Every structure is written in structure tokens, then in C-alpha cells.
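Sharing a chain and its predicted structure for anyone who wants a worked example. Both blocks are below, sequence first, C-alpha cells second.
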Amino acid sequence: MSLLSEFEDIVKKKDLVLLAVATELRSALVKATPVDTGNLKASWSPLIKTDNGYRLSNTAIYADIRLEGYRIINGKQYGSLKFPEGFRPILAKYGEILQQKLKEIKWV
């Protein structure tokens, strides 16, 4: 096997890992999304392939507030007591999963 074909194989494996983890992450985020009216849960976009991997977003105007979790800033409450940690723990978990799976790829 040539060095070029080995490199191409690694790139394909990396892309498959990125897609698999991004798909699992999206599923976990949708499942964990708290429901009041259902708008936040319904506002998750499909995965979009980019030059660097995959992009996932939520189009609800208050999605960023939920991302951060519950907090009080200058006496004003942000987020929800029903979802106090926000999405950060899920993102951290899947960041670790992605790092581990990428380490498992045979790098020439």
C-alpha cells in the first residue's frame, strides 16, 4: 500500500468517526432538550458537512441561554432550573468520545 493510499484511508476513517460522533451528539442533544412548548427541541438543525467536519445548530433564539444552563447575572435569572447544567456536560462528554475515537485510528 502506498503512502498516499494509507493517508487517504486515514482521512476516510477520520471522516467516518466525525460523522458517527456528530450523529450521536445530535441525538443526545435532542433527547436532553427540555420541553416547555417544544420549540427548542424542534429547532435542532440537521448535521451540515463542512470543510472541518460537521456543524450542528439550534435556530431557537434562546438556544444559547439553554446552552449555558441556569445562572444569575446581576440579579437577573437566565436559563432554566429544570435544566440547570445546560448542554455543556453533553458537549464535554462527546468531545472526550471524539478524542478517544480519533486516537484509535492507525496514524501511519
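Comments welcome. The first strand starts at residue 48 and ends at 50.
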